[in-house]
Amino acid sequence: MTLSVSSDALADAKTIPRALSASALQDLWLKMLHDIEPKLQRSQFITWFKDTTLLGLEEGTLIIGLPLPMFLNWHMEHYRGMTLEIAQERLPDVRQIVYQVDIALKDNPERSVNLLDHFPEQKRRKVQGKQEIKLAEGLVSKILNPRYMLDNFVIGANNRLAHAACLSVSNQPGGKYNPLFLYGGVGLGKTHLLQATGNAILKQMPRATVVYTTTEDFTNQVIEAIQHQKMEQFRKRYRLVDVLIIDDVQFLANKERTQEEFFHTFNALYEERKQVIISADRPPQELNLEDRLISRFERGMIADISAPDYETRIAILTEKAQEYEMFLDQQVLQFIAEHATRNVRELEGILMQAVALYELEQRMPTIKSIADILRKLNKDPYGQEERIGFDVQAKRAPTYQEMLECVSRYFSVSVQDMLGQSRVKEILLPRQIAMFLGKKYLRATHVHQGEIFSNRDHTTVMNACEKIEAKMQTDPQLLREVRAIEQELGFV
Ligand code: ADP
Ligand code: MG
Asked: How far is CA 226 from its chain centroid?
């Protein structure tokens, strides 16, 4: 590689013999960057094109300036071909690209292009084609989340049967797999599969009435119908459904009236050959429900989902990293997969933290930064031998902020939402759990917590704490969730 331009000489643009002025070169580079940007993940683009510039264009050779030696190999290996093609689209005479490292380019906006100014962060790419669900009047369905698709669900030995069953149901609702019953522990992908199946059905049959409901919502509707003496309407409405998806039926336990209504709805739909899809945290025979309901569930297809093995965890991380447009080094990926073993939500949580770190500080995740994240979650990534140095930190009580972050990660809601005004269920429950933990373990007073949570009244905090405490007695899932968070924070 011959370089005809030295970096010293470049400091004084007037002394350099070349066809284009420094500003024309910058201009050209900016245009090329606009062509390059859509071809790369944002994190890669920002990382590898930050502080770069065009140093010269001489006799068919384009000279690109890089701010650090480590950029050189990477560009030569990954970007040289693409950059040449893009250059040739604008300047057909360009025949080759050469690179020159000049550390004076680093953080020097006068000489290199300030990428963050020219390419501000846009909202994250959303999955296209959010479905609009048309429902008969009065029917309530949570909007199916378009993020959940059958083809972004990573298949492994742990979930192959469940995925195949969902795929089959999506092609032939009301067919041979009816009802479809999926079961498995927290964070293993039940809700993802249920919603993805609904989405797939709606895609093929946009006029179908697909209702996804959590068991809690269904229960609330029954209660409301009873209160307002509108049971007949409630029944009629549900008989109009083509596909009924009901998540987490273990929560029907001890709700006799709702079980009865569900039993009748189920029968009516089943007889009409309408598809019913059910999820729970355990197999039908272990559910604490009426026998007649359990035997209905056992009539169809039952598939379990267990925790993913190492290879599947790697595949899931790779998929999620792509969804979040996050470039992760293979070794970092492996490191996360080795240490986040319990469920997919945990895996995603760590990845999200790495994304946050990247967005805040523009730092690519390294093994060390991931180890720091794991350590904050009280997961010592280095095992016994190297523990000594970490012990003090691991045993120190978490701060209030760390508790909030842990709850937010666990439920995949933001701390900001938890502290805010929204009363949607997905946020309400994590908020109440945070208040409960704050009181129980961090000795935060109701008044103080009220202030933290958008100046709520102290009685609201008190009610939340009492509600969680009482509900944990009767609700095994809530108990498990709270225990998992307590464990992560080292409270128990
Ligand atoms: P569950 O309902 O079983 O508690 P979720 O469906 O809410 O679990 O899954 C938790 C998170 O993990 C979701 O963001 C989901 O997209 C993701 N997830 C779980 N399994 C997979 C998988 N096999 N492939 C891709 N994402 C998955
Ligand atoms: Mg779920």
From this structure: 38
